[in-house]
Specification:
- With 156 residues, the chain is mostly helical.
- It is built from two helices and no strands.
- The protein has one domain.
- It is rod-shaped and about 190 Å long.
């Protein structure tokens, strides 16, 4: 292998190229790579943070939904209890009213019964008095007595 001047010059130019590249180009490339790595790392960290926030929000939303459902069920149960109480009170009042109305109706019936009874007794007494007067005015014989009783029965 012959080492000639052109190979040495090429090696020298290559070494100068490497030194210049390491001094001027390499720092810029490394800086750009570092900036890119930092941007990617920041993006990944932000994505991870966003993912954690999303999971936390989903968890909070689920807890809030569970709490809301429990509150809704509690409100519904209270409404059912209130409705049952109102129904119970209404039934109680209706029973009291029914009892009062029945008592009033019974009192009215008793009063009407007594009124009719008094009228009937008065009519019967009037008929008895009238019949007695007629009997006393006539002679008492079997035929007139029967006929008089028939008239009285037909009047009644």
């Amino acid at each position: 292998m012959d080492i000639n001047a052109s190979l040495i010059i090429q090696m020298l130019v290559f070494a100068i190229f490497i030194v210049l590249t390491m001094k001027f180009v390499w720092p810029s490339v490394m800086q750009a790579l570092e900036k890119r790595r930092k941007n990617i790392a920041d993006g990944l960290a932000a994505a991870e943070k966003g993912y954690k926030k999303l999971k936390l929000s989903e968890k909070k939303e689920k807890e809030s939904l569970t709490r809301t459902k429990a509150q809704a069920m509690k409100i519904i149960e209270q409404a059912h209890q209130r409705a049952n109480y109102i129904i119970l009170v209404a039934k109680s009042k209706a029973r009291e009213e029914r009892t009062q109305l029945l008592q009033l109706a019974k009192n009215d019936i008793d009063q009407e019964y007594n009124t009719v009874k008094i009228k009937l007794l008065k009519q019967v007494s009037d008929i008895v008095v009238e019949s007695t007067q007629k009997i006393l005015q006539r002679e008492v014989n079997k035929a007139s007595h029967d006929r008089l009783l028939d008239e009285l029965i037909s009047d009644i």
